[in-house]
User: Fold these one by one.
Assistant:
Number 1:
Amino acid sequence: MRVLSAQFAPGTTTADHPVLALVVALLAASLGWFWMMLQLRRDAVGRAVLVGLLVFGAVLRAMFAGSTPVYEDDYRRYLWDGAVVAHGGDPYRYSPAQVSAAAEPGAASVPELAELALLSREAPRLVRGINNPDLTTIYPPAAQAAFAAAHLVAPFERDGLRMVFGAVELAGLALMLAALARWGKAQSLALLYWLNPVVIFTTYSGLHMDVLLLPGLVGCVLWLRTRPFAAGAALALAAGVKLWPLLLAPIAFRGVWRRSGVMGLLVLWIGGLSALLLAPMLVQAGQGSGLAAYSSGWVNSSFLFRVIRWTLSVADDPDGLARAVVALVLVGLSLWWGLRRPREERTVPLHMLGLTTALILLSPTGYPWYLVWIAALLPFAPRLWIGALFIGACAYYGRFWLGENGHYVWYTAALVPLWYGVPILLGLIGWARQRRV
């Protein structure tokens, strides 16, 4: 996959790209990973083997240094946001299109825009290549801090992002090893995350930022039994990277809900920290913001959401109603698992994983890099049907060839349902067997 990525360089077309070879390579790697999952569910590996495989995972990541991202350009926004933040600017105020317009000769001079226009001249091709340029950034402040760090490490360079992502992942891996030991799990289960080919490829080739969630999610699992306020801070940090981890709060802290004094303080603690971290984005989340556009209109590579929307097609606004249904289902699941059995702490990681998986399955947008969210929690409850989602992720890259050749309908009508439908079917079969027992 690293070798193939060189053939996706700028200036080439889909006809030049070895798409089929890439899909087969990712499929083969994911099948190999799934076989490893079967082994690790039965037997733990020795410490020497574990250390060797952890080093191997680091080598796989380093291998993508200097590589060309395959069919991805979100990193352009990361690099621009990081430059803006590193220079003291506000990434939520002006869109890249506004900055580009301000850089044109004779444009009206607004002091902050003029400064950003001057900054954009350091990397004009980068700014012009940002997708959805009319929207301000969608990425929350904690993610912006990572982008700014990447700019300080290597201004406007993709490898700056890779180095920051690698440092964050190493911190998350250390927390994961400690958390597995605390929950009485074999530390070798961390390999389910560390050697996951979808995680590695979407992060270090595609340069997607979802690995920034790892320390927050895993830190929450590590501390929720013994240090609930540290766990709450970790969850708030994860929400500062992407909003959705707040859904996990009722489940993660269900052991303290009946202790009213502690519960009240914990709610204030998590809510206050989250509000503090998210305020710079939320106060400017009106029309023209990436957050508003994403939450109200984007649909891509989804399965169950399309089914729900089709079911509600007789309504005046089936898309909006479907989004409301999804939100209610996810909040309902969170409260059900969080409040129904408050003393069953041993199943907390499983239910956190279950809710995160439900979010991905029901989301209007489904991308391979979203699977990083469940990869972070999978070592604590390695369910095979959830692991099967990673096998179908290769289908996403086939959509580009299908679209180029006028067959995109095969992606939405066949590949996406297979990607999500087969694991869902496996999960339902497993659930039915458990009910019979």
Note: Residues 11 and 409 are 26 Å apart (CA to CA).
Number 2:
Amino acid sequence: MAFWKQFVLSLIVIVAGFAAWVFFVPGAGDTMRDAGIPDSFVSKIAPKAEGTADADAPARAQGQQRGEGQNRRNGGGRNSAILVATQAVVQGVVNDRLNAIGTGDAIRSVAVTPQASGTIREILIKSGDRVKAGQVLATLDSEEQVIARGQADVAVKAAVEKSNLYHNIKSSVSRMDVFDSEIAEQGARLQLQAAELNLARRNIIAPIDGIVGIVPVNIGDNVTTSIPIVTLDDRSEILVDFWVPERFANTVSVGQPVEAMSVAKPGQVFSGMVEAVDNRIDAASRTLRLRAKIGNSSDELRAGMSFSVSMKFAGDKYPAVDPVSVQWDSQGSFVWQVNDDKSRKVRVSVVQRNPDFVLVKADLKDGDKIVTQGLQRVREGGAVRVSGDVASNGEVATQ
């Protein structure tokens, strides 16, 4: 397209746009006057806009004066107040719950070893059996001990006969002979007791009530007093040892309730109580050892299981606010509190951060309104209106 055609087309577009602005935009005449265009020219090309503006000017000025007066009386007016959203302060608790991992053990557990060395002749139990204290678990070869007991029995009988004889003929024997016979009788009886004890030790006896573990020996094995024959567990109750941080040292005590969950029983909570508290803090880990006792009447738990242990405490109470409400400046952290439709900066010290709220140390109480939205425009002592408040026209104010 030729240059002159482009120029003419551009000029037509400019003129059309100017005409549309003049006839459709209120106040176009005033704008042209401000730009220095003579009034005679303006009145010719924009009479309608000019007339409308002149007619509305007195009413508009009067309304503006009334609005300014009302704003002055209201301290700026509700429409000038900053719209914000708030959330009430609630009470939060810190250090109110303790979670730890512990290991379970039977309330009583005994590795049974023989009291004498020898060859196993008989095994009377198997893994999983319930046994009572005093029950024979296994026996060792005892032929030698049986012979020794027989010899001691014969010696006792001979000593008794000799002692009785000396007592009957006291007149013909010395008192020293009678005394010697009595001593011999007592010695023979002691030898018999020793022989019977050695024979009894050939039986391996259960020292406690419990459940038999895996038996690691067989008939014919030669065992000594250092070789365990079997392990017995009394798991009517389970002891769980766990460690807690040092800050709980003055909080925990014997008798406090605990709850434990086993990895083998997910979702099932077992109740118990603190059975013992150690007397010192571990210097390496800065933790305190505790022992809890959990009932196991249904025999669902085993020694060696891992447990997740939890305890509840009264804890320390602090005001809790929404995380987004905490702001920072050169002096530290603060929140905006709304009181009587005015904003006030309250200094806070963060105690603990949680996903849903922040615990702070501040001059706040339950129910105080804290700004959570519109924070960028809030100023100290400024007028605010809370989202959801009823406006003067009866409508709910929304942002």
Note: The radius of gyration is 49 Å.
Number 3:
Amino acid sequence: MNLLHTVVKPAAINFALIFTSICTFILLALCLAGCTTPTNYSPSATPIAQNTPTPIDPNTPSTSAPDIAKNLGELLQQIAQQQDLPLPILEAGFQDTKSIQSIKKLVLPPSKEFKKNWAAYRQRFIEPVRIKAGKAFWEQNRDFLSQTEANTGVPASLIVAIIGIETIYGRQLGAFRVKDVLSTLAFEYPATPNQTARAALFREQIKDLILLCWAENKTSANVNQAQFNQCLNQNSSYAGAIGMPQFMPSSIRSYAKDGDGDNLIDLKVSAKDSIASVANFLQQQGWQVGMPIYFTILTNPLAFNAASQLADGEPNPKHTIQELIELGILAPERGDLLTGGVSPTSKALIVDLPYFDKNGLEQTRYVVGLANFLSIVNYNRSYFYAQSVAEFAEALGYENKSVVPIIAPTSRVQLEEKLVTPISSNKSKTVVKKKRKKPSTAN
């Protein structure tokens, strides 16, 4: 967001949303990322398509634009009244809003015939071009990444991996105007089982977008209409996610940080702002400093069968590491902090990653997701996404094991108590020995 702070006194503008009814239907094959968890939307990151969508025209309108005009007008009146904002400025900002037919196709869940394929997903994101770009991004921002890791405990390799998977470091920021996306999904969300909840969520995102753009452009009692409009018109993904880290408007307001110290937050251009924001999000989602993200299971039929019985697709840690060791799923050292494991009482979940082997047969890979795995799932509610982030980070040098300081003789129990408190739900909490400065943003 390149946001300026000059002031222009706006003139009253009559609100009109008149659209030409042009129907151009473009068939797309969309495969939403993930395993057995929902992936249509997340608070901060746009869902990742498993296959590259057919190229589309971002300006292709639907035939129901007048309905959006009426509903959007009513929503703007409510927001203006509730937030004490001048309605004419909001109306002027949204007067050319379009309904985008292709967006409604993109958010549809996969068909019943669609088979998820972890191998294809992984190949798309963990590949030489993206890894090379990741190393270059890391080198360009090495000092700030090191500083951010020291301040938050979030590994630099993980931050680099997320930005790389999301947008290849700003190369793919989306081709839709964010106000068009949010308005389309708020008032014309396709008929799905969660239609009502999703539509309500995107109406809230419109409100957050308005408040975000107003706060960034307001000087004194007024706002620069041109810059306010520019903020509303910035590019986003088909789900309304913005910038290098692909944050939704609500997440920008809650988690985005000014990393470069210019008193602006620009996630489209500023690498430092993006790095600081990703780290802050993960820290707020309970990132456990010095702890691994996932464990591979033992490679024998007993471990595979036991894991398949426990995999339920819910991102909720229900089993302790000790239980998984006793079931023969994990090796004993996974419950030992001094050998790269975690506390045996830490909670975890079984992650299922279905794929097709070289013979075209359906197979499933199982891993054990830990607290840090769930922090990544909160970024984008998809097992495929979280696992790809972890493995991308490993390709950049991340060591997926506990990192504990060498302390004078002490018992393992004392060490575990000092380092980490086991999580009891999917809302994990980070506990570290040293106090850190609390982030200034709030959820």
Note: The radius of gyration is 23 Å.
Number 4:
Amino acid sequence: MLRRIVRGFNGYAVQNSLYLYSLVLFAVIILFFSVTPMIAGGINSGLKAHISGYFIFSFTALLFFRAKGINRVFLKAALFAGMYGFIIEIIQLLLPYRLFEFLDIVINFAAAFAGVVPGYFLVKNKWI
């Protein structure tokens, strides 16, 4: 029954472009928190923010790319999210109140690749 509900939502989301809207929303949220000064001791910075942000972003990219019928969707979704993180780090290099850190790029790519792992199992078990 749960599988039928998930498939029904997936069809609804594809039909109404919800995956595209979600992808754009997450991209804007990540960009906003990446270019603003640190909030409350750095809640918009650090390991937890990078991992959760890029994990969700790559999973959303996976759903969108899969809905569009793009091949090699897992690799492309992870690379898309990781490259977005790389571009954000380049933007932070230009801002006086933010820092460019190579380790952040590595964390972004690692979280992006980890974000497509649940999607792999959902696709393998034909949930999406």
Note: The chain has one domain: 2-124.
